[in-house]
Design a protein that fits this description.
5-stranded antiparallel beta sheet; 1 helix; mainly beta; single chain
Length: 193
């Protein structure tokens, strides 16, 4: 179990049901640390390693996604919002691993850009790249956009149990989205498929 403290941008991990908690610290890679954590996800076990990913905003006021390889020989936070193919955004608001992570090594994230475009992006741990750079030519995908949208209040992701990143026929993702903004933005809130 891993939890994120969004007020202090720190992550905690327990591997014994909460009897002991380990502070994994503030996600950062190099000098740019997380200042906001909006979501957290844990991958399935991959050769004794579970990847813990968090989505949020870094100290430079840009979206970022970080991961921590719990169980690795020398675990440390890695920022991946700077990797090739990432569509520069103002905040990453949701993150989820593929249920078939052992096979496709994929993770998806909902991001917000300039308060008016909400998009779905995909990262491949095998190539260490995002979207088109990782071979996913249809990404990033715009979920909603418009000048009446001024931000994302909340977002959540649920991937189909048979989701496989490289098989378009199985790439079923439900996205729950609540946006803020003018009255015209309210219809943009809802569930997307």
């Amino acid at each position: 179990i891993a939890i994120a403290n969004s007020n202090m941008a720190q992550v905690y991990l327990t591997n014994n049901g909460g009897a002991n908690w380990y502070n994994l610290g503030t996600p950062q890679d190099g000098g740019v640390a997380a200042v906001v954590i909006r979501d957290i996800a844990i991958s399935r076990d991959l050769n004794g390693v579970n990847y813990i990913a968090v989505a949020g905003k870094d100290a430079s006021n840009f979206a970022n996604v970080w991961y921590y390889p719990a169980g690795a020989v020398a675990p440390a936070w890695k920022a991946i919002g700077t990797k090739s193919g990432f569509s520069s955004t103002s905040e990453a608001v949701a993150v989820a691993f593929s249920p078939n992570f052992l096979l496709d090594r994929a993770m998806v994230s909902v991001t917000e850009r300039d308060n008016d475009v909400v998009a779905l992006q995909i990262f491949n741990f095998g190539s260490n790249q995002w979207n088109d750079s990782a071979g996913f030519t249809d990404y990033p995908v715009t979920i909603t956009s418009g000048s009446s949208v001024t931000g994302v209040d909340s977002a959540s992701l649920s991937l189909s149990p048979d989701y496989m990143a490289d098989d378009p026929n199985s790439c079923i993702i439900f996205i729950g989205l609540t946006v803020s903004g003018a009255t015209a933005a309210v219809p943009s809130s809802g569930i997307y498929l």
